[in-house]
TrEMBL record:
A GO MF label: beta-galactosidase activity
Keyword Zinc: no
Alphabetical list of PANTHER family matching this protein: BETA-GALACTOSIDASE RELATED (PTHR23421)
Positions of the Beta-galactosidase galactose-binding domain: 499-557
Residue ranges of every copy of the Beta-galactosidase 1-like first all-beta domain listed in the record: 370-480
SUPFAM superfamilies membership: (Trans)glycosidases (SSF51445), Galactose-binding domain-like (SSF49785)
Listed name of the protein: Beta-galactosidase
Domain Glycoside hydrolase 35 catalytic: 11-325
Membership in a protein family: Belongs to the glycosyl hydrolase 35 family.
Active site per UniProt: E159, E235
Length: 584
């Protein structure tokens, strides 16, 4: 598939022919690799000619200097699969991607040095970017269209005008790509406003705009800054993401189709953000911070053309109908539906209490003051702080200075309340005469992925006070919870409302997609056969966690729930129906 892709006036050209790019976002890192081809075929059958994906730096360099390009991180396999299906590819690499992804794709280890300045010409930041690009770009170069690959374009930074105005930084990234062999079309994408375009456009780089409605107004603004160039909506927001505690966002198919029609009438190109959302597996969900901190849920369903588990929606067929008005399409030929199964109720028969398991899950460290996850060399998960307080003390206010994000407080092992960065900020404590052991379990619920508060340190970021008195000398247990194999489980004898791991097993004759219904559970993290499915929380909106069939195996399967608050019914249900909205 030899491709000569370039700009001529206000047209994209492929092999000398004017071409409209109709693209859709599928994030390889939110879909199990076994399903990449299924999702890409469905994209092609909808009338699209291109797939676009971000590349999250934190997935590929989880530890500084240590790189991963396997499994969910196998970007080359994804690109090759897209080529096999007959799609062009647009790549939007790091350093920053937003994407409602943890820290906007930036690796948490960047924050170990508190002097670092993100997304600017800061030499310390660029040194890290260069080391990453030295590894990433050579992987992409063989797949460029200039080398007979499917990659026709790449982005130099993401929505930069929403963050800063460092033109030297943008030029540095452009040149960093070019000198490593990236010779395809480069572009930027920004909101269609004066400030965002002024901050985010870069000399010698094609500008595109992002929006969900207001087609003519948005494209008119782009043409003010970039006349006689192709019009492209790089992010057509045809759905939206959800935060914990919100209602599930939806958008009518008819409205999406109408907006798309307006774009195509202007001879514009478009990239659907997103075509298929997938799942924020593990601890990779991001968070926003407008007036307050708002973490994103595990599901990235987004109410778009394919559901979280890959089923075409009403929106899929409405969009295809619009595309058919402008592009001749063959009869639709969708892959066979992927089986979905109800495996029924699964009893959780064994448990392990967190506070009895600290020494097998973590190596404790003694510190004068509480330290953040980043200072402790930890990326995701939980962190536990413990100290001894002298007594007696009555009616003392316990204050955590800037705890990120949700802290559960224990006195002599007994739960006494929570302190969060978005709500309750203090707890009243009575310390007995012989003193007490104070424990604080802090959950990192996702680093901020957008806006001015990207430097989002996790854990206790300042200190702990009783009234005005700081508490010193702490034992700290980092709890990334990546490996649970050393946990010692015992039969459940009584229901203890303290953080603990619950384990159950079930037998599968034939793996199929299924959904973990966590009704009756409060808040925690679910694992299937050692794979971290993500967080659950009773406040919703989502009430099930998606389990793709490739995570199951024939025979016995193991499920573990790390439950923070306890349950009255230690069982879960594996259903054939997703629940994306909490019952009102």
């Amino acid at each position: 598939m030899s491709i000569d892709f370039y700009v001529k006036g206000n047209q994209f050209m492929i092999n000398g022919e004017p071409t409209r790019i109709i693209s859709g976002v599928i994030h390889y890192f939110r879909v199990v690799p076994e399903y990449w081809e299924d999702r890409l075929i469905k994209l092609k059958e909808c009338g699209f000619n291109t797939v676009e994906t971000y590349i999250p730096w934190n997935l590929h360099e989880p530890v500084e200097g240590s790189f991963s390009f396997e499994g969910l991180a196998d970007i080359e396999r994804f690109i090759k699969t897209a080529k096999k299906v007959g799609l062009y590819v647009i790549i939007r690499p790091s350093p920053y991607i937003c994407a409602e992804w943890e820290f906007g794709g930036l690796p948490s280890w960047l924050l170990k040095d508190k002097h670092i300045r993100l997304r600017c010409i800061d030499p310390l930041f660029l040194e890290k970017v260069d080391a990453y690009y030295d590894v990433l770009m050579p992987i992409l170069v063989p797949h460029l269209c200039t080398n007979d690959g499917p990659i026709i374009a790449m982005q130099i930074e993401n929505e930069y005008g929403s963050y800063g105005n460092d033109q030297k930084y943008l030029q540095y990234l452009k040149e960093a790509m070019e000198k490593r062999g990236i010779d395809v079309l480069l572009f930027t994408s920004d909101g269609p406003t004066d400030s965002m375009l002024q901050g985010g456009m870069a000399k010698g780089v094609l500008a595109t705009v992002n929006f969900g409605s207001g087609v003519n107004q948005s494209f008119d603004k782009l043409e003010e800054y970039q006349p006689n160039q192709p019009l492209m909506c790089m992010e057509f927001w045809n759905g939206w993401f959800d935060h914990w505690g919100e209602k599930h966002h939806t958008r009518e198919a008819e409205d999406v189709a109408k907006t798309l029609d307006e774009m195509l009438k202007r001879n514009a190109s478009v990239n659907f953000y997103v075509f298929h959302g997938g799942t924020n597996f593990g601890f990779y969900n991001g968070a926003n911070h407008g007036e307050k901190y708002e973490p994103t849920i595990t599901s990235y369903d987004y109410d778009v053309l394919l559901t979280e588990h890959g089923v075409p929606t009403e929106k899929y067929f409405a969009v295809r109908k619009v595309i058919e008005k402008y592009v001749p399409l063959p009869p639709i030929a969708l892959p066979e539906p992927i089986p979905v199964k109800d495996f029924g109720e699964i009893p959780m028969t064994k448990s392990a209490i967190l506070f009895d398991s600290l020494d097998v899950l973590s190596i404790p460290a003694e510190r004068i003051c509480p330290e953040t996850m980043e200072e402790m060399g930890q990326d995701y998960g939980f962190i536990y702080y413990e100290t001894k307080i002298s007594g007696p003390r009555k009616d003392n206010k316990l204050i955590l200075q800037d705890a990120h994000d949700r802290a559960l407080v224990y006195l002599n092992g007994r739960y006494i309340g929570e302190i969060t960065r978005w709500d309750q900020q203090e707890i009243i404590l009575d310390i007995p005469e012989d003193g007490a052991r104070l424990g604080i379990l802090v959950e990192n619920m996702g680093r901020i992925n957008y806006g001015p508060f990207l430097k989002d340190y996790k854990g206790i970021t300042e200190g702990v006070r009783l009234n005005g008195q700081f508490l010193f000398h702490w034992t700290i247990y980092p709890l990334p919870l990546k490996d649970l194999t050393r946990l010692e489980f015992t039969d459940i004898s009584k229901m203890v409302h303290t953080p603990q791991f619950y384990k159950g097993s079930f037998t599968v004759d034939q793996p199929a997609d299924t959904f973990l219904n966590f009704e009756g559970w409060k808040k925690g993290v679910a694992y299937i056969n050692g794979f971290n499915l993500g967080r659950y929380w009773e406040i919703g909106p989502q009430q099930t966690l998606y389990i793709p069939a490739p995570l199951l195996k024939k025979g016995v399967n193991e499920i573990i729930l790390f439950e923070l608050h306890g349950t009255m019914k230690p069982s879960i249900y594996l259903s054939d129906t997703p629940v994306l909205e909490k019952k009102q």
